[in-house]
Amino acid sequence: MAQQLRQQLEEVGSKLESPPASKDALIKLLKKAANCLSEIEQSPEPSVSDSMQSCLNAFAQKELLTHQDRDVKVLVATCVCEITRITAPDAPYSDDVLRDIFHLIVGTFAGLGDIDSPSYERRVVILETVAKYRSCVVMLDLECNDLILEMLKTFVSVISDGHPQNILTLMQTIITLILDESEELQENLVVILLSVLGRKRNGCSMAARRLAMNVIERCAGKLEPFIKQFLVSSLSGDGNYLNYSIDHHEVIYDLYQCAPQILARIIPYVTGELLTDKLDIRLKAVQLLGELFSLPEVPVSEAFQPVFDEFLKRLTDRVVEVRLSVIDHLKNCLITNPERPEAPQIIKALSDRVLDYDENVRQKVVAAVYDLACHSFKVIPIETASFVAERLRDKSLNVKKYTMERLVDLHRLYCSKSSDGSTNLDDCKWIPGKILRCLYDRDFRLEAVELIICGSLFPPELSLKNRVKHWVSIFSVLDKFEIKAIEQILLQKQRLQQEMQKYLSLRQTYQEDASELHRRIFVCFKSMSRLFNDPMKAEANFQFLNQLKDANIWKILTTLLDPSISLQESWSRRDELLKILGEKHPLYDFMNTLTLKCSYILFNKEFVKEILSEADAQHSAGKTKLISSCMNVLTVISGYSPLLLAGCEEDILLLLKVDNELIKEGIAHVLAKAGGSIREQLTMTSSSVELLLERLCLEGTRKQAKYSVQALAAITKDDGLKSLSVLYKRLVDMLAEKTHLPSILQSLGCIAQIALPIFETREDEITEFITSKILQNSNKADEVSLDNTQWNEISELCLMKVFGIKTLVKSYMPARDAHMRPGIEKLLEILQKILSYGEISDEIRSSDVDKARMRLASAKAVLRLSRYWDQKITTSLFYLTLRISQDAYAESKKSFLNKVHQYIKERLLDAKYACAFLLSFNDFHCPEYEECKQSLLELVHICRQFKMRQLSAQSDLNTTPAYPEYILAYMVHALAHDPSCPNIDECVDVQAFEPIYWRLHLFLSLLLHGDNGSQSGAFPIQRKESYNIILSIFHSVKSASDAVDETKSTTIHAICELGLSILKRLVPDVQVSGIDVVPLPSMLFKAIDSSPNDSMTDDNKRTWLSSDSALAHFEALRLKNKKMGDSAVAEDGMIIEENGDDNEVPLGKMMEILRNQGAKKKKKKKQVKKDMFDDLETIDSEFDILGVVREINLDNFEQAQDAAAIVTDQSRSEKVDGKINTVKEISSPKRKQDVIGFEVLVPTPKRKRSISTSRPNSSKGSKGNIKISPLHSLLERSLFEEDKAETKTDLLLSYASDISSKKGRKVSNEVHVKKDADSSSEKLALPDNRKKGDQSRSSTSSTKKRKRRSIAGLEKCTSLIDQSNESELVGSRIKIWWPLDKRFYQGVVQSYDPENKKHTILYDDGDVELLLLSKEKWQIIDNSHSPAKQLKSHPPSVSKDISPESVNNKNNHSDPGKNKESRNKELDRSSSKAKKKGSTKKKAEESSKLVSVSNTNADPSPGSNDESEDTDILQSEFNDAKSDGPKDEAASPTSETEEKTKAEELGVEDRSPKFSDTKDNSDDEPINVWRLRAMKTT
Q: Least packed by Cβ within 10 Å: which of 286, 455, 1050, 1096?
């Protein structure tokens, strides 16, 4: 066999030495050679090697290696690979031949893409041979770099998803061998691998991507430097790899899965992309990281934890699109891996954005949270889901509706899952309560909530038993408001069912008088349509429905109204009716709603039976909470659908016999409500029900006794007269035994309310027993605690007394004819004694807590009795009741005020009792102040609503409770009679009347301004009526005297005067045509009998309480209160900062912020007074809001010089009697520290500062928002120039007109400090960056190149400046290095702060920064001279022989037009050069100021051509500055003493007129003066 093989090899080799010309013959010969070579083992015997030599020589021929036929190439490559295998590890050929061989082999790899090719198997063998025998390593030795690149490109291009795994493995082995054996990797080799990474690569298969990822994973250490270089270059944007079109984000995505360790060093660059100002890059970074963190089963590595944290912070990004993207990715993170360690952190971050200011973000958070909750019930905590559900109260209707939809879907899913036991039943029980609360939202109508509760809350396939369990669980967490909401739904359903049944019966009734039938049907339609959202549309639909003739429709409707119908039948009948109509029928939607509203789908008889069974089951399980819940469900159903209890009488009686107090109480309550509907069936079932109820009346709890008495009256035909008579006799007889007194007293009181004739038969015995045996009973000496006792430490005797009082009160509140009940005076006398002493007599001993409890019970009794017996309640009893709000026990006060609020809200109590809230506090520091304010505000709103109903119903307009203003008459009288109120004639201490002021001010402000607290802008028209009523009430009270105590009249009048003063300050501008006479309560006031000459109540005779000094004292207190609330300014600033850059602050929001920061009132022009109170009045002045808006619009893009919005009080002109009076406000410099300042965050439009938070101590980090506090300096400097008003008025008015005509015009000049004629004429440029107009300003700002600071930190200055020379840099031009921009930016050093050692830099493009130059990289542009030093050495001199008038005349004679033009230019420039901070102090000496104007591009050298123009402007400004002084001022310049005086008045530092005495550059000073004047005249 071996001999034959050798012969074949020799034969084939000899023939191949001269290859046949025929292709087929050659292929046949090559196949034979390949077969022979494949049979030879590696390292064969010498004889075999010798026989192979001819073949080796033949295959080394160029003719075969470079043959053009495809099949021949494959066969030759196959044979060569076999030869290489056999001779390994020795090379069979020379290097040149091997190169040709590898070219041939690599070329055959291109055919691997065609799996169906006949030569595919041979190509695979070639690939296996190269991989197995490491032939590819020889390519490295031969330096076939280009061939290696070609092979790698071939691999990634031919590999496909259809290839078997072994092909991918072979290719991976070859590439890995090349990478491992390479001493120096080729960059192009790495680029090829990276080019196939990514999910969006066109022309590259997923198999090629997997191949590259596998190679990178195995050779990560070798490839890391190159990959890192590529990523750093791509992330930094240097453009070295732009020609390769490789998406570095996609590369990072794949590297994170295969070799995350490579990415550890490029994390800071990824973080930089998250923080960049470029939105597209930031979005791509968010997209990348979101996809990385969402990878399943790939946890966040420790190295990527900082990036993950920064990724979470992008939830607070200023761009909405970024926040939305982050929310989506975080949701995907938890969906792919709900149990990941970062889940709590992600959930918290999402829940924090549920209050985002953008509604799309809030809605996205709701979607994300509930998607996660639906995906996995355990990933979202119940607290988080409940918190997100609060978006049902969102300000956006879209968010509300979406949240409602998601909550319903979530609840349905929970119900479905809980039925099979996969989730806990209690996980979703809170959802219906949230939905029910939407009933109180005006955006959700009752119909919408009802349709959800009835039709959508539970899946239709949910079994009845599970539905009952869910409702029991739901009721266990419902509060009283949510229960009231479901009762409202059932009430609407009950009304609709009753009206619908009436309508159906009318349709079946035949009447000869058809018109009467139609009228009655129309009335039914009217009643039913009111129960729909759109009554008019509903009524039209009812009319359309009435015309339908299909009998099946009416039959189905009748069936749906049957209480005995089952749940499944209700659904099927309803679907049948809708199917009859069809979806295209006009009534389809209406009938869908109608059938849902009037059917028994929510609760039915089956449901009631199941509830009773569930209650019994919970009793057996001993679950008290669920038992109570079952009883609550039954109580609600029995109140609005009592017919559903028919047929359940036996079950009800069985539960009534159960030994459980909660069940007994619940069943008694159910019978009290539904007993009348099931009376006959209940009597037929058992006669023992009355005995069971009587036992509860005698021996049960108080609630059981109450409900049992009502049940006895309900289940008997004679309304309980017979049964209650028997019970009443037993109860009275048992009083003497003194057993079960609480229940007996409760039962007696209820019988008095239900059956008063029965109670009156033995009323005296009951009253005598309660009075003598209970109320007059005293505690023993050892039972009375002398120590301070707690509120809950109440004695049993006190409880019994409270029960006795309640029984007596109920006896005077029968269900009918209460006003005819005699003897109320005795009860009121008892209550008055208890309110006075705490007991019925001051001789009875009891603890302080017992007395407080007794007073509280008596006060509540008065409140209840006032509903029927208000005319019998005396003034003294009324005031004793109100003073419970001043009780020493906070619990007593709170309970009493809550009861007052409840009764007034339910319209069971006269609104005059709201005075109790005002008496409950003394000043705004009390903790009760805000609570009382909110309660009063709600009561005022309720009274006004009731008033509107009265007006719409054309009821009696004289009914005072509907008008909250009428409470004032009671309030004034109550304040005067309060023990804390001093006599106005005896006490002159203004502090003693502070409580009265606070109470009056609070109530009047609530009446006039609601919750706003202070009025701004136009007085609302709807409040004018309230103002007139208040004014009339005060004047009417002043015209009356006290009917209770005549000596209190003066105090009452003084309180009215104080109220009028407060009224005028709250509403200063309202005009009143006349004062009406208001009827006052006769029990409090009486008319004054006085002659016409007697001016006792004349307004001119005012008491000292309404004097200016007293009012100033009260105003100071109020302003002090405002200061305490000014901490909200920071929050307002945050709002502006948050809305900065891309999101501008709405004007309305900014006005609200400004008002909150410094709201003050307008005032008439008054003479300046020196006393403290008048100074305090001046504080209350209001800055001009419109002026602020004008200033913001003017200076919005003047950030180069202003960097702030300067707010000032401007003079206002009012036209009075045809004359224009200039109103000015004068402020005393002694109290400048009391002036309320505020800070305005001015968003700069020049560039965004995304890293501002990272550098809190640098102005560069917060350049976008510059804080100023202008009121201290600007107000004082402007307000104290009023002594010059006459000489300035004409001049300033002319300048004001000039400013208005030139506002916004660009002045491309620079301001220079003019030196003396003998000194050098060098000028220090300060660029004026005023833009041409609003349109040009915005366009210029938006196109300006942004400057970027380094994220990593600041670059240090190589040469630090000397501390002693820091101030001498002022005025120098320097250039500062900005690392991210990689360039210098030029600017001027404007000023130096020695405390912070920081310089203010004004850049040439207008930006301003406060920098610590010792930590910056900067250079002086021209350091041949120090401007500050030159200022010292060359002080300016002004000839003292030239007067301002002469200079002015000279200018006017020489060139009047030019002088005027220069003055206009100077004014325009000065208006744009306002100070950055109002607190900056500058010298006020006009004579030392020489200002010139030149072009911004002008040469600053001494030889400038602008000197003549500068001289004219200099003289013009000098004249203007001097013209501010008095006309008789001497011609010589102001003396040093006068200059110091002026400086003190202006609030600036006192400096020498010589430049040598200061280091600050004062060339802006005259500009400041012009700025102040211009602002005072605009």
A: 1096
DSSP at 1181: B
Task: Pinpoint the alpha helices (H) of 1260-1375.
Answer: 1276-1279, 1285-1302, 1334-1343
> How many whole angstroms separate alpha carbon 221 and alpha carbon 136?
21
| Residue given tokens 């060339």 in the structure block | 1563
Question: What mean pLDDT is reported for the chain?
Answer: 74
Determine the average pLDDT of the residues in 1512-1531.
Answer: 39
Those residues whose C-beta lies under 8 Å from the C-beta of residue 505, and which sit 6 or more positions away, are none
| Structure token pair of residue 1447 | 């200079």
In angstroms, the CA 1025 to CA 1008 distance is 10
Look at residues 1398, 1388, 1367, 1465 and name the one whose alpha carbon lies nearest to residue 1201. Answer: 1388
3-state secondary structure of 346: helix
1197: Cα separation from own chain's centroid: 30
Kindly state the tokens that stand for 817.
């004819």
- For residue 221, pLDDT beyond 90: no
Distance CA 593, CA 595 (A): 6
- Separation CA 373–CA 500 (nearest Å): 41
929 and 920 Cβ atoms separated by less than 8 Å: no
State whether residue 1491 is helix, strand or coil: strand
Contact 338, 376 (CB under 8 A): yes
- Is the Cβ–Cβ distance between 1276 and 1546 less than 8 Å? yes
DSSP state letters, 708-754? HHHHHHHHSTTTTHHHHHHHHHHHHHHHTTTSSHHHHHHHHHHHHHH
Rounded distance between C-alpha atoms, residue 521 and residue 1029, angstroms: 46
CA distances from 722 to 704, 718, 727, 729 (A): 20, 7, 9, 11
Amino acid letter, 710: Q
Q: How confident is the model at residue 1246 (pLDDT cuts 50, 70, 90)?
A: very low
Question: pTM (2 decimals)?
Answer: 0.66
Contact (CB, 8 A) for 608 and 648: yes
Token pair for 886: 């001043």
Strand partners, 1399: 1392, 1411
Task: Pinpoint the alpha helices (H) of 1104-1146.
Answer: 1108-1124, 1128-1138
What pLDDT, on the 0 to 100 scale, is given for residue 810? 93
Does 1184 have pLDDT greater than 70? no
Burial readout 1536-1565 (b: 16 or more C-beta within 10 A, e: otherwise) = eeebbebbeebbbeebebebeebbbbbbbb
Beta-strand ranges (E) seen in 829-963 are: none
Least confident piece of the model among 176-185, 575-584, 1207-1216 = 1207-1216
Residue 1203 has pLDDT above 60, yes or no: no
Given this model, what pLDDT does residue 1277 score?
Answer: 41
166 vs 1368, higher pLDDT: 166
Residue 1003 backbone phi and psi in degrees, to 5: -65, -40
Check residue 534 and give left, alpha or beta (phi > 0: left; psi -120 to 50: alpha). beta
**Residue 1483 · residue 1551 · CB < 8 Å:** yes
Q: Which ranges of 44-134 would DSSP assign to H, the alpha helix?
A: 46-59, 62-65, 70-87, 95-109, 120-132
Q: CA 1133 → CA 908, 1014, 1128, 1138, 1145, distances in Å?
A: 46, 21, 9, 8, 11
Measured torsion, CA atoms of residues 54, 56, 58, 62, in degrees rounded to the nearest 10: -160
Write phi, then psi, for 757 (nearest 5 degrees): -55, -40
Residue 981: DSSP 8-state: P
Angle at 1154 between CA 1150 and CA 1156, to 5 degrees: 115
The residue type found at 213 is: M
User: For tokens 């040439």, what's the residue?
Assistant: 1404
Given this model, what pLDDT does residue 239 score?
63
pLDDT for residue 131 = 86
Length of the chain, please? 1578
- Residue 243 is predicted with a pLDDT of 64
pLDDT mean over 831-845: 91
